[in-house]
């Protein structure tokens, strides 16, 4: 691929259109040249890998405006996103870019977390609701170049929320979307980060969090009796809610308090351990509306398949995550979910990891005697030796996966002109669970992102819909889209309060879910080949974190998984190596720059600095 992250990637609008076109093509790549087989010895055999990704199916995209008007329109902005801008020479590039570009409306939003930590090295700074959150374990100083990519994304700046809310809604055309395409960062997989989830803990522990910024999900919504309404989930929300009566408030608070330490009260639920969570809720003193809120918007579990214990665990997890960074348990990374894999790429690159885009692997070379993978052959015909080989499931050929049974995820991405629940306040980041429309159908998770998340242009919203597949993505998700949105290009005039947001553009696709597959299900894989899955349909990323740690521990049982990186002051360099570098640098025709404070304190020529370029 020519981008990072596989099926975890994010695209600009034009990038997504190219991705759609690529996945609609049915042709496979031909392999006429067989010269590489000369590299295989007599005591070796090969395991060929797949030449084309087949994890994406049933791709359908729709424009609900005048698509012809955008035929000659080009995407604005010439700046290219630099995935490794935090690794080499970002400061100079950023300065050059600023010379060539006209001044923009504003820089990146100031993060609340620029205040020093109360306990350095443990907890990240807290952020008030709606503000951008930079997850760090200490004060990292100015983050204008902290995430590298963010500093260079001059074309993605947004107006202040107060300016946005003060302006009248504008009619957005397809040609505007194309022209402003670089302001979009559209995720292939839609997820949020639990504020006390495994991924947040890993980002903090490994210090990878310094390469990214986050925004709080500001509200939890529910779809009930044909209407979208806000769910009170924190103590303050419950007591300030006008939707609930005083009796309902007491009922809800009593039940949520029980869920926080339900293990201490087994007599309350042990008779219902074999029942579903929905059945258990009916036995509690909760009104139907409260049961709906708890089941679909707090626990976010299935009405038919979730056991009582699973529901209580999900409710407790939700409640434990409240208040760490805001009024909801969730965070969203600025510029999209695709930032997360790139952040780990940056940290890895600082310590010597090498990434090759557009560089495919033809086959694995296996020693017949030991049965271990000893090398790979790439598409240039060169042989690269390896002790371990880690591969995502999508690269394995059909012959290797004959006994593997996959699930599918149904996905839809919409660009809309309004929020599903308009308010007078600033634009919101919302999560909504739509209960099953028909028996046997799954609930649909809807995540609505505003322009302050740096994922869409001003005056638009980016809406992600996700559910486990029962049919094609369009068949699974279009009924929900029709319930929540208006698909007509021209809206009908009527009561503005009842007018649904309009869809400007949409894409549906099915994505393979390869999680939970035992390695033994794959035919003929050597013991030192490790298979990882693509994204799952869950809201969080716990599955990916657990899988990464499991594979790492199998390979290196005595090593710590993602340890904290050393401070620049603690790095000890070999004296001969330093002398050679200084000698080479002094002989350079260029004038030696004055060392910065960070460089001086860490010994000079090559130091991993806190927030500037890492070279």
From TrEMBL:
Transmembrane segments: none
The RAE1/2 domain, residue ranges: 409-537
Domain of life: Eukaryota
Main location: cytoplasm
Coiled coil: none
GO function terms (MF aspect): GDP-dissociation inhibitor activity; GTPase activator activity; transferase activity
Annotated segments matching region Disordered: 93-167, 557-615
Gene3D superfamilies per UniProt: FAD/NAD(P)-binding domain, Guanine Nucleotide Dissociation Inhibitor, domain 1, Guanine Nucleotide Dissociation Inhibitor, domain 2
GO terms (BP aspect): intracellular protein transport; small GTPase-mediated signal transduction; vesicle-mediated transport
One GO cellular component term: Rab-protein geranylgeranyltransferase complex
Annotated Polar residues bias: 138-148
Protein name: RAE2 geranylgeranyltransferase
Originating organism: Steatornis caripensis (Oilbird)
């Amino acid at each position: 691929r020519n981008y990072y992250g596989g099926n975890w990637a994010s695209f600009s609008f034009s990038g997504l259109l190219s991705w759609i076109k690529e996945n609609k093509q049915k042709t496979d790549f031909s392999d006429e040249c067989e010269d590489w087989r000369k590299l295989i010895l007599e005591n070796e055999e090969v395991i060929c890998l797949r030449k084309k990704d087949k994890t994406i199916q049933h791709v359908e995209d729709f424009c609900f405006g005048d698509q012809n008007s955008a035929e000659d329109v080009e995407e604005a902005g010439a700046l290219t996103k630099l995935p490794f801008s935090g690794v080499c020479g970002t400061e100079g590039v950023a300065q050059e870019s600023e010379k060539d570009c006209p001044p923009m409306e504003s820089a990146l939003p100031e993060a609340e977390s620029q205040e020093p930590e109360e306990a350095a090295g443990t907890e990240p700074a807290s952020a008030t609701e709606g503000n951008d959150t930079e997850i760090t374990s200490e004060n990292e100083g100015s983050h204008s170049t902290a995430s590298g990519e963010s500093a260079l994304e001059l074309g993605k700046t947004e107006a202040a929320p107060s300016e946005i809310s003060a302006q009248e809604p504008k009619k957005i055309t397809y040609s505007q979307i194309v022209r402003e395409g670089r302001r979009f960062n559209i995720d292939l997989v839609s997820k949020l980060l639990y504020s006390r989830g495994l991924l947040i803990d890993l980002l903090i522990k490994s210090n990878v969090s310094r390469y990214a910024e986050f925004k709080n999900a500001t509200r939890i919504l529910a779809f009930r009796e044909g209407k979208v309404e806000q769910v009170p989930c924190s103590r303050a929300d419950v007591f300030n809610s006008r939707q609930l009566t005083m009796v309902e408030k007491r009922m809800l608070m009593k039940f949520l308090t029980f869920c926080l330490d339900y293990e201490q009260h087994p007599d309350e639920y042990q008779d219902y351990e074999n029942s579903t969570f929905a059945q258990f809720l009916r036995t509690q003193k909760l009104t139907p509306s409260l049961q709906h809120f708890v089941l679909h918007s707090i626990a976010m579990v299935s009405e038919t398949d979730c056991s009582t214990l699973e529901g209580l665990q999900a409710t407790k997890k939700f409640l434990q995550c409240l208040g760490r960074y805001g009024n909801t348990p969730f965070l969203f990374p600025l510029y999209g979910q695709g930032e997360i894999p790139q952040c780990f790429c940056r940290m890895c690159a600082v310590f010597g990891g090498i990434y090759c885009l557009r560089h495919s692997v033809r086959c694995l070379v296996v020693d017949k005697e030991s049965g271990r993978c000893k090398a790979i052959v790439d598409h240039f015909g060169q042989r690269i030796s390896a002790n371990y080989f880690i591969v995502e499931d999508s690269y394995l050929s059909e012959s290797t996966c004959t006994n593997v049974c996959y699930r599918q995820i149904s996905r839809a991405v919409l660009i809309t002109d309004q929020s599903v629940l308009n308010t007078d306040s600033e634009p919101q980041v919302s999560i909504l669970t739509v209960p099953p429309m028909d028996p046997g159908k799954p609930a649909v998770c809807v995540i609505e992102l505003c322009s302050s998340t740096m994922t869409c242009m001003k005056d638009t919203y980016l809406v992600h819909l996700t559910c486990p597949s029962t049919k094609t993505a369009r068949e699974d998700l279009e009924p929900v889209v029709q319930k929540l949105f208006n698909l007509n290009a021209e809206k009908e005039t009527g009561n503005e309060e009842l007018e649904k947001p309009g869809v400007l553009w949409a894409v549906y696709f099915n994505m393979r879910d390869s999680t939970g597959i035992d390695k033994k299900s794959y035919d003929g894989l050597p013991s030192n080949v490790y298979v990882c899955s693509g994204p799952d349909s869950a809201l969080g990323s716990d599955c990916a974190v657990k899988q990464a740690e499991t594979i790492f521990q199998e390979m290196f049982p005595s090593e710590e998984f993602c340890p904290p990186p050393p401070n620049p002051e603690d790095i000890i360099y070999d004296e001969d190596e330093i002398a050679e570098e200084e000698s080479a640098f002094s002989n350079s025709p260029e004038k030696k720059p004055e060392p910065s404070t960070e460089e001086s304190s860490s010994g000079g020529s090559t130091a991993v600095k806190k927030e500037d370029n890492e070279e």
